[in-house]
UniProtKB/TrEMBL annotation:
Renumbered residue ranges of the record's region Disordered: 80-99
The protein's name: Transmembrane protein 104
Bias (Polar residues): 90-99
Xref: PANTHER family: TRANSMEMBRANE PROTEIN 104, TRANSMEMBRANE PROTEIN 104-RELATED
Gene Ontology CC, one term: membrane
Record-linked InterPro entries: AA_transpt_TM
Signal peptide: none
Keyword tags: Glycoprotein, Membrane, Transmembrane, Transmembrane helix
Chief localization: membrane
Topology in the lipid bilayer: Multi-pass membrane protein
Subcellular location: Membrane
Residue ranges annotated for the Amino acid transporter transmembrane domain, each copy included: 20-66, 133-451
Length: 496
């Protein structure tokens, strides 16, 4: 659950951690990026991608610093507890020796020297897996904690809506064509509408909704139980993902090399920046899962350099995938899910490869949907939980799973516009998780550390962007993005 301190898990090397972080960041968002690139223009897309990658790296270092500060608090409390047990018989204790949770709220009213403590150098070692919800409860006030959970919940709802739409959409594209069943899938220069026929008198939109119903009936029940991602399932889905990405990049390069590239993307088209921004933010999302990834790394001496290397590799991969796509295919022929562009006979001659790429999102996304759903359900429980209280069976086993499952399925029923779903999720909830929450976390944890341990204390995992300017810059950028995206949506809808 997001609000708990969970087990660290089995330790692994820094390079394994690099691979895990790479796999976490490069997910569904990468499949919607090529169309967003083609819509916004290659130069604008490249500049925005690099800048948003830098901003995501900055806030990732913020979260790591906050994790270290949270660990320092936990370590100190354990040391104080052991000391109290050893000195249980003594009658007095100095204010500078103990800082309990109750007295902590009054610390700002006391002289600084009365609450400063000499912190051992290893106090900031990241050994406890402290999830973001727990960090929020340590550093935020009650309003801040509630806003944190609200942001996480909205983001997870968006995630589930994207997943619920992507699977039936892929199945519809692979199994339907304008003339009925067609083993070659999407033909060149063919544009489909939802009202076009799929099988007999059944429309494409009807087929999509049938697939959505089947998807919900098969995977929805997992929301009512506890599920965990197994190691072997993770290995299998990662292997399939990289085989699919490698095939798409190689096929696109081969077509371009043969002079068959159809794409002539514009230099810049600012009307497409809104969706591109949301897609890029969504595609760099990892901050909410950093505790799970960073804590088990055995050696954290070069953690910042490791994260920087990961971001450079991810930027290179996104650039390679998107640029080969926009120069291989015409912008108006790029699909919301890039894998579906390879369901054409003129692109891929081997039927097995066409179906593998076309159905690739079905396999990988279906394995993630139950995990995301259970995470969202648990966050709802944490948000409404009161200390010492328990939920009735009906509320715990029926109400929370239902409010988790129904809204994203309804959204997917109404639309399968994956680019917009990813764009809106990334632009709003994604901006909150990736920019706003890490900025406030690092600012408040720095104040907390100075108050608790003194102004000379150095967090060994502090961000390279340690000046307060960077916190302000990230917040200013985040609120500017909120304003820009909202204004763009309003102007687009009203066609002013």
């Amino acid at each position: 659950m997001a609000g708990e301190i969970t087990e660290t898990g089995e330790l692994y090397s820094p390079y394994v951690g690099l691979v895990y972080m790479f796999n976490l960041i490069v997910g569904t968002g990468a499949l919607t990026m090529p169309k967003a690139f083609a819509t916004a223009g290659w130069l604008v897309s490249l500049v925005l991608l690099v800048f948003l990658g830098l901003m995501s790296f900055v806030t990732t270092t913020f979260v790591v610093e906050a994790m270290a500060a949270a660990n320092a608090q936990l370590h100190w409390k354990r040391m104080e507890t052991r000391k109290e047990e050893e000195d249980e018989g003594s009658s007095t204790a100095s204010d500078s020796d103990v800082l309990t949770q109750e007295s902590y709220e009054q610390a700002e009213k006391l002289p600084i020297l009365s609450v400063q403590r000499r912190a051992p150098p290893n106090l900031f070692e990241i050994t406890d897996r402290v999830e973001m919800g727990q960090m929020a409860s340590m550093f935020f006030n009650k309003v801040g904690v509630n806003l944190f959970y609200f942001c996480i919940i909205i983001y997870l709802y968006g995630d589930l809506a994207i997943y619920a739409a992507a699977v039936p959409f892929s199945l519809m594209q692979v199994t339907c064509s304008i003339s009925g069943n067609d083993s070659c899938g999407v033909e060149a220069d063919t544009k489909y509408n939802d009202t076009d026929l799929c099988w007999g008198s059944l429309r494409r939109v009807d087929a999509y909704r049938i697939y959505l119903a089947v998807f919900t009936l098969l995977l929805g029940p997992f929301t009512f139980f506890d599920v965990q991602k197994t190691k072997y399932l993770q290995i299998l889905t990662s292997l399939m993902r990289w085989i699919a990405f490698a095939i798409m990049i190689v096929l696109a390069l081969v077509r371009i090399g043969k002079g068959q590239g159809e794409g002539h993307p514009p230099l810049a088209d600012f009307s497409g920046v809104r969706n591109l921004f949301g897609v890029c933010v969504y595609s760099f999302m990892c901050q909410h899962s950093l505790p799970s990834l960073v804590t088990p790394i055995s050696s954290k001496r070069c953690l910042t350099r490791l994260v920087f290397l990961d971001y450079m590799l991810i930027l290179a991969f996104y650039g390679l995938l998107s640029f080969t796509a926009i120069f291989c295919f015409r912008g108006d022929s790029l699909m919301d899910m890039y894998t579906l562009n390879f369901a054409r006979c003129d692109v891929v001659g081997l039927a097995a490869v066409r179906f593998f790429l076309g159905l690739f999102p079905v396999f990988t996304i279906s394995t993630n949907f139950p995990i995301i759903a259970v995470t969202l359900r648990n966050n709802w429980k944490t948000l409404f939980h009161r200390e010492g209280g328990t939920y009735p069976w009906v509320v715990d086993r029926v109400v929370f799973p239902t409010i988790t499952l129904v809204p994203p399925v309804l959204v997917a029923f109404c639309t399968h516009d994956l680019e917009s779903l990813v764009g809106i999720t990334g632009a709003y909830a994604g901006t909150g998780i990736q920019y706003v929450i890490p900025a406030f976390l690092v600012y408040l944890c720095r104040k907390d550390t100075q108050l608790a341990f003194g102004y000379g204390t150095i967090n060994k995992h502090r961000s390279p962007f340690r000046h307060t300017f960077w916190v302000g810059f990230v917040l200013l950028w985040a609120f500017s993005c909120f304003f820009f995206v909202t204004a763009n949506i309003v102007l687009s809808e009203t066609k002013l």
